[in-house]
Amino acid sequence: MVIFAAALAVIWVISKLEIIVVPVLLALILSALLVPVVDWLDLRRVPRGAAVSLVLLGGFAILGGILAFVISQFIVGLPDLVKQVERSIDSSRRWLIEGPAHLRREQIDNAGNAAIEALRNNQAKLTSGAISTAATITELLTGAVLVLFTLIFFLYGGRNIWQYVVKIVPVPARDRVLEAGRAGYSSLIGYVRATFLVALTDAIGVGTGLAIMGCRSRCRWPRWCSWVPSSRCWVR
């Protein structure tokens, strides 16, 4: 019962400090992916600060290259996408007119006009929704800055930070907690590395398969969507 109450208390605190807890957890996961590279450079006598800077700059360069490629491919495939949407709308209209519904063209036009009128009548709600969206974007930008700030500290002195945190634990259990934290972080590194390799394999496999089948306009997206584990199910 005490453990259950403590778990509820932790969940409540996390929910209240979500703007801080989530960026810290994301920074921890990213550090598990990048800290092996920083350690490798550190062993080659590269200063720790310079190693962190090189790894972050390299990561930003790779991420920027991926985003630039995805955006360029989206722009190239946008005309085909517009044509597909237009064909889908036309086929849907024909099905409503010639299919089991047997609707008249005037009824479909009236339904479209009613939808437009409903949007006009709810401009206030749409405006408030836009304001809330802007607030959400601001929170996301704040979270991104916190992730970057925390990630720098984790990469530069994560071990020292953990040793300092462990000092709040009673002395008899301090060594066990210290080793448990190190073992848990090593497991996290292995998990992130395995997820990265699986995502890379999925991206290459799905993109190659679609390219072989001739889906040129679609093979651009799975390669990059497959990098996100939750997106792999959608791609498949």
TrEMBL record:
It is found in: Membrane. It is a multi-pass membrane protein. InterPro entries: AI-2E-like (IPR002549). GO terms for cellular component: membrane. Pfam families: AI-2E_transport. Coiled coil: none annotated. The keyword Phosphoprotein does not apply. Its main location: membrane. Belongs to the autoinducer-2 exporter (AI-2E) (TC 2.A.86) family. This is AI-2E family transporter. It comes from Mycobacterium kansasii.
